[in-house]
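Try this one yourself first.
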């Protein structure tokens, strides 16, 4: 009697060999495409949503996966290194935090508080007391509007004035700047965005950067730009819905003019400058290349090696830095931090101490 045995199943590691080289080759190709297309092609706003951390995590995981295979080790290591080197620069790691420390602010230094409020005072929390506890000289607040499918304005000026007596207030669309220092000049940047609505909705779509020149005394002026770039996409839509892709294209058309307007205004402005707000832009996104070269990220002073400001609620990990603060070289930032908001917003707040 002859017994026929079924062939033994291939070991899991052996069966995985064809997959691993494919992934190792595919990832550097994705990274290269990302470097070329992010910030240049509207469709790439969708891949732009990946957490920046993956640009360092994936090469390391692939290299570790090839360790058991002698023949794959070297080519995988080389390809992983080729993807890892550019990935380090766009993944959001804050290496300067290792040697950068806050400095003692001099007398007269300013405290600046910037925050995307996620629909103004909409969660029932202690909104105004929370703002007052920051004891800021300048508040840059975004999303001064009501929650809903169609943006509608908030009419809360009286409460603002009562909460900050003696402060000066500038409002444009969804942006509110509250300053203890006198405001000499204020205007939203003239961004050439396509408009399909009128009235306040058109103002909401158009006015995403509010410039306020504040009087520092002795003839010195600080230009403060309160910014909220449009989000890339609508998470409530399915990728199988044509409206999802139309929204991505439309949001790109809204973001680009704002960045051009910022570059033009900063270029023509000789004052010391602070730009802060919700950029809806991660460290991996090519849109950061469009920030004017005169501006310098204050992020080196953030104490975290991987600073992130979103999503700040429900105990979820924060994987994205979407909120940024930039200054010109004549503005000295003494400290910079992200702070939790007690669930009142999905964005951390930014708190800076600076002097001019």
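Now uncover the answer:
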């Amino acid at each position: 009697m002859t017994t026929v045995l079924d062939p033994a199943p291939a070991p899991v590691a052996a069966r995985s060999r064809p997959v691993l080289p494919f992934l190792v080759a595919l990832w550097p190709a994705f990274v290269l495409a990302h470097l070329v297309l992010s910030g240049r092609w509207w469709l790439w706003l969708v891949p732009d949503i990946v957490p920046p951390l993956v640009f360092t995590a994936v090469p390391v995981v692939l290299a570790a996966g090839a360790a058991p295979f002698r023949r794959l080790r070297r080519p995988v290591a080389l390809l992983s290194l080729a993807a890892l080197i550019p990935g380090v620069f766009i993944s959001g790691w804050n290496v300067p935090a290792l040697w950068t420390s806050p400095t003692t602010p001099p007398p007269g230094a300013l405290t600046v508080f910037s925050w995307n409020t996620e629909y103004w005072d909409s969660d029932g929390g202690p909104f105004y007391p929370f703002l007052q506890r920051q004891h800021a000289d300048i508040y840059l607040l975004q999303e001064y509007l009501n929650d809903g499918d169609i943006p509608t304005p908030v009419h809360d000026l009286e409460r603002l004035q009562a909460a900050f007596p003696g402060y000066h207030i500038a409002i444009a669309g969804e942006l509110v700047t509250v300053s203890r220092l006198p405001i000499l000049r204020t205007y939203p940047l003239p961004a050439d965005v396509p408009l399909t609505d009128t009235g306040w909705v058109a103002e909401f779509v158009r006015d995403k950067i509010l410039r306020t020149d504040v009087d520092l005394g002795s003839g010195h002026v600080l230009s403060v730009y309160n910014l909220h770039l449009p989000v890339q996409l609508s998470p409530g839509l399915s990728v199988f819905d044509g409206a999802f892709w139309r929204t991505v294209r439309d949001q790109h058309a809204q973001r680009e003019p704002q960045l051009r307007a910022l570059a033009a205004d900063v270029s023509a402005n000789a004052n010391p400058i602070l730009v802060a707000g919700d950029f809806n832009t991660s460290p991996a996104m090519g849109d950061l290349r469009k920030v004017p070269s005169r501006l310098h990220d204050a992020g080196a002073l953030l104490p975290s090696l991987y600073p992130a400001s979103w999503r700040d609620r429900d105990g979820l990990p924060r994987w994205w830095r979407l909120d940024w603060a930039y200054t010109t070289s004549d503005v000295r930032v003494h400290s910079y931090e992200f702070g939790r908001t007690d669930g009142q917003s999905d964005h951390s707040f930014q708190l800076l101490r600076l002097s001019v």
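Discussion: The longest helix spans residues 242-267. Residues 12-91 form one domain.
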